[in-house]
Amino acid sequence: MTLKIKFGTDGWRGKIAEDYTFDNVRRCTQGFANYLKEEFTPEQVQQGVVVGGDRRFGAEDFTAAVAEVLAGNGIPVHFAGAGTPTPVISYSVVNRKAIGAVNITASHNPPGDNGFKVRDPHGGAIAPDGLKRIEAAIPDDMSDVKRIRYKEGVAQGLIREFDPNPAYIAQIERLIDLQPLRDAGLTVVVDNMWGNGSGWLSRLLGGGATQIIEVHAERNPIFPEMKRPEPIPPNVDAGLAAGRKHAADCVCIMDGDADRCGFGDENGEFVDQLRVYGLLAMYLLDIRGLRGPIVKTLSTTSMLEKLGERFGVPVYQTGVGFKYVAPKMLEVDALIGGEESGGYAFRGHVPERDGILANLYLLDLMVRTGLKPTQLLDRLFDLVGGPHYYDRIDTPLESNEFKEEAKARLDEAQPETIGGLRCTGKVTIDGYKFELEDGGWLLVRFSGTEPLIRVYCETTHKDKVQAILDDGLRLAGIA
Fold first, then answer.
1. Quick one: DSSP state of residue 144?
2. Suppose 235 and one of 37, 57, 226, 388 were both cysteines; which one would form an S-S bond, judging by CB atoms 3.0 to 4.6 Å apart?
3. Which pLDDT tens digit goes with each residue over 262-307?
């Protein structure tokens, strides 16, 4: 039976050799080609599509398969190949004036998975209505897939291999002065999580007094020392331990495709991704004195609303995923956009997560202020009225029947209190978000990329985090 390919929060992901096969990747690419021919004029289509991917198993062959189908449809391919960071692929779309991109990556998923992401002419995620059109355009079988061999595509000039790195580096140097970072004399451990970010911070910051120590830098598609290349504990524990071993000033972390950012402080302790978003917003607003709207998913920190009020900038809330964040950033010319999973995008760049640039901005924050990460957090908390505490529990879905039962329970739920705090509102734009009296929140939602139900919370009461999560699990019917 032919697999019905469905796009989730950020493209299509599947298990290699089970549903993520060469033929299904080719079908997906044909659907994207059909969409592009409908969306753009023939002249625009000739501007081509960027194709790249990560370092997962079979990445070189999967990216080549994509290029063959696009070329078979007469669509020129700017071929960056495997091992290219997601933000570099996204920037290449803009730099080469392409009409989009295909990125072969499963980002932070387990090692047995791979994925298929598509991007628009801005280098950002395609909005949900566009993804639905691509889904509808995917042929049911291989008989409607057009394809030419890779070498033939190169010979015809339809597949054009190029090095995307120099243009991206030039863009980074326009956004941030790297020399003070090179001269700062910091010791920085970089955990690349065996992924596409390997070598990038050394390349950008090497040659000065700052010492860059890279770990998990080799290509290893089984991702040893971690369950998956997602930049949160326990996956980052070995990298944080390296930070303690080398007495590093901080630990910079990137996920498998380098679009997400994780961070560790001078004590080798993890700084959660909500606090990192707060630090990045503080850096742009307070330290660099910039102004502009903030875009956030409903699953990330309420510290942003407090910063927005303090600095006089609007804050917009979206559903989870950059397919919502990117269009909103473009609509309002946002200064920064981001989500709970550690993905942050910045004005003047592309409306796409960039783990390389986010880590550079955090280092610049340290250098400009002369403060350690723990001291920077104290400064942030002074601005937002005290520490905010976050946690998340992921639970595998037992069945579709359980999912429907959980949805029914959550639809009806109208709790007066959660974790001992008064519930002040309920938001259902993506999952079920219960707002709390301290400005915190509980969110229960179903993952758009994996068969999981996620329960998240943020509160100003450290002693109530577990109680809030427990109430979230109960509301969903999870024992």
1. G
2. 226
3. 999 999 999 999 999 999 999 999 999 999 999 999 999 999 999 9
Q: Which of 95, 80, 158, 90 is nearest to 119 (CA)?
A: 90
- For the domain made up of 389-475, give the CATH fold: TATA-Binding Protein (3.30.310)
Peptide bond into 327 cis (omega under 30): no
CATH classification (class only), 176-384: alpha beta
Beta strand segments in 302-388, E: 315-318, 336-338, 344-346
pTM, 2 dp: 0.94
Give the type of residue at 417: T
At 154-194, the pLDDT tens digits run 999 999 999 999 999 999 999 999 999 999 999 999 999 99
CATH architecture under which domain 12-164 falls: 3-Layer(aba) Sandwich (3.40)
**The tokens of 443 are what?**
């969110």
Own/partner contacts of 238-244, CB < 8 Å, gap of 24 or more, are: 238/191, 239/189, 239/191, 239/193, 239/215, 239/264, 240/191, 240/264, 240/268, 240/269, 240/270, 241/268, 242/189, 242/191, 242/213, 242/215, 243/189, 243/268, 244/268
Distance CA 477, CA 457 (A): 17
Say how many C-beta atoms besides its own lie within 10 A of residue 186's C-beta: 19
Annotate 326-342 with b (16+ C-beta within 10 A) or e (fewer): bbbbbeeebbbbbbbbb
Coil vs helix vs strand at 300? coil
Q: Do domains 176-384 and 389-475 have the same CATH topology?
A: no
